[in-house]
């Protein structure tokens, strides 16, 4: 993980707090996005074709001058940090920067120029190669501040920052008591602590005390402020977390380093679990850069081959979640391979039935239409070309998939081909449940927890009888 994106907030030092000789060193792995963004801003598209080789067959590169962006990042985020103004520099550059390069940037304070200026020695290296060397003059901050980043670089080109709006909606609400189930690896424990730092949850750590404390010690994290419920193993942790939710001691669950089936195995039993009158289902809350609104995809994680009765609850769960997330009348597209009813294609029959059930009030709170093929659900142009007259076609807020295989494909294609970020939540249970993954970025983990917080507060408000 890159040093500049491994955390989600940065604190500065003022002129008076910085001594000559102060230094910071940052490691950075260059991504394809880095190179392409630099080419976009600078107008240097030389990497698109070189040596007669098509761009798709070679890694993108840019001139060594691009290393200046890394130096600026270190200065603006780390030393002196947020609030710093760069007022002059003399830098020399060499070589090229390629996707995958492992760079190291070092900034050192070599002089203080009263009343507020610092002279910084700056160098960027790739192994033994010096890509940038020189000095930068800055005006240091006059007051201390901490800036919340939440991986801002990942959303610079997004047209519609869905997750940013979720984070904003969570402000001024108290953190939600949340059982973090078996946080016995660095990813799961760090994710819970990061969510706590941002005021999203008040974590209750449930699992083997010795393992959790060992992970915290290895990561240099202080967990003394949080309740720790000691259990023998992961299975017991799942059962204990569910018991805490049933007793009202926590209002949400977050999966740690145990298998999803193990956690859900404790959730599902009617007598001892967290089931309600609704079918349990999962919703991906997706931030798709090329789509102008939040997109919910359901169910791609829990129900393998849902019946029509199951789908009624799956649709209603998603509509209710959309209301909580600020969509008053979500447009629901029931997906199939085609947009016409075909007796030989069960998904189209289910779609027609769900639409009629919505007409008769068996599904409420949204506009439901289907069957719709994927293109007709998300593209106004595609719907218009096929002469589909529908308030949902091309404008869907919710995509309801036929089965888990279709849902998994839709969600992952949006993630890996369209650059979508996806938060996830389990619904139909007494408390919301987040199923984290090791592949989740910091931003994704926080977004899932933000959805959890909004949902938990909405349920608590409804339970108290407030309007």
Entry summary:
This protein is an alpha/beta fold and 467 residues long. The chain has 13 helices and 20 strands. The chain has helices at residues 32-42, 67-77, 162-170, 186-197, 209-219, 234-246, 260-267, 308-324, 346-359, 374-378, 380-385, 404-418, 442-463; strands spanning 9-11, 23-29, 61-63, 85-93, 96-98, 102-113, 117-126, 129-139, 146-148, 176-181, 201-207, 227-230, 252-255, 281-287, 295-298, 331-335, 367-372, 398-400, 421-427, 433-434.
Shape descriptor reads globular
Beta percentage is 15-25%
- What is the tally of helical segments? 13
Cα Rg: 25 Å
Structural features, described:
The chain is of the alpha/beta class and 467 residues long. The chain has helices at residues 32-42, 67-77, 162-170, 186-197, 209-219, 234-246, 260-267, 308-324, 346-359, 374-378, 380-385, 404-418, 442-463; strands spanning 9-11, 23-29, 61-63, 85-93, 96-98, 102-113, 117-126, 129-139, 146-148, 176-181, 201-207, 227-230, 252-255, 281-287, 295-298, 331-335, 367-372, 398-400, 421-427, 433-434. Strands 17-16-18-15-14-19 form a six-stranded mixed sheet, sandwiched between helices. It has a five-stranded antiparallel sheet with strand order 2-6-7-8-4, with helices on one face. A hairpin with a 7-residue loop joins β14 and β15 (295-298). Mean pLDDT is 88; it is low at 47-58.
């Amino acid at each position: 993980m890159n040093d500049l994106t491994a955390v989600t907030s940065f604190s500065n030092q003022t002129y008076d707090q910085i001594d000559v000789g102060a230094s910071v060193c940052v490691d950075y792995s260059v991504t394809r996005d880095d190179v392409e963004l630099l080419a976009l801003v600078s107008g240097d598209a030389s990497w698109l074709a070189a040596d007669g080789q098509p761009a798709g067959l070679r890694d993108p590169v840019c001139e060594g001058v691009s290393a200046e962006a890394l130096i600026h990042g270190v200065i603006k985020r780390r030393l002196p940090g947020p609030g710093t103004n760069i007022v002059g520099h003399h830098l020399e550059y060499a070589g090229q920067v390629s996707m995958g390069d492992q760079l190291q940037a070092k900034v050192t304070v070599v002089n203080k120029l009263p009343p507020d200026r610092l002279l910084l020695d700056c160098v960027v290296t790739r192994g033994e190669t010096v890509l940038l060397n020189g000095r930068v003059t800055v005006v240091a901050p006059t007051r201390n501040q901490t800036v919340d980043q939440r991986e801002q670089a990942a959303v610079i080109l997004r047209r519609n920052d869905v997750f940013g709006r979720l984070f904003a909606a969570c402000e001024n609400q108290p953190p939600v008591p949340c059982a973090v189930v078996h946080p016995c690896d660095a990813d799961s424990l760090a994710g819970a602590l990061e969510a706590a730092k941002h005021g999203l949850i008040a974590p209750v750590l449930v699992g083997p005390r010795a393992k959790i404390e060992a992970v915290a010690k290895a990561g240099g994290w202080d967990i003394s402020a949080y309740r720790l419920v000691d259990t023998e193993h992961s299975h017991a942790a799942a059962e204990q977390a569910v018991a805490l939710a049933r007793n009202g001691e926590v209002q949400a669950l977050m999966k740690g380093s145990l298998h999803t089936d193990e956690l859900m195995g404790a959730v599902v039993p009617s007598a001892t679990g967290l089931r309600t009158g609704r079918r349990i289902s999962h919703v991906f809350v997706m931030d798709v850069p090329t789509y102008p609104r939040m997109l919910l995809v359901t169910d791609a994680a829990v129900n393998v081959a849902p019946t029509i009765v199951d789908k009624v609850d799956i649709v209603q769960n998603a509509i209710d979640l959309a209301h909580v997330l600020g969509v008053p009348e979500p447009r629901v597209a029931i997906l199939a391979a085609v947009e016409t009813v075909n007796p030989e294609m069960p998904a189209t029959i289910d779609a027609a039935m769900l639409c009629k059930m919505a007409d008769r009030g068996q599904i409420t709170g949204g506009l439901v239409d289907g069957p719709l093929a994927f293109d007709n659900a998300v593209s106004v142009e595609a719907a218009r070309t096929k002469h589909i007259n529908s308030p949902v076609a091309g404008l869907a807020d919710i995509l309801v998939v036929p089965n888990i295989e279709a849902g998994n494909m839709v969600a992952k294609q949006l993630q890996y081909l369209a650059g979508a970020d996806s938060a996830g939540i389990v619904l139909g249970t007494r408390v919301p449940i987040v199923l984290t993954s090791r592949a989740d970025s910091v931003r994704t983990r926080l977004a899932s927890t933000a959805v959890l917080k909004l949902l938990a507060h909405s349920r608590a408000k409804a339970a108290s009888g407030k309007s």
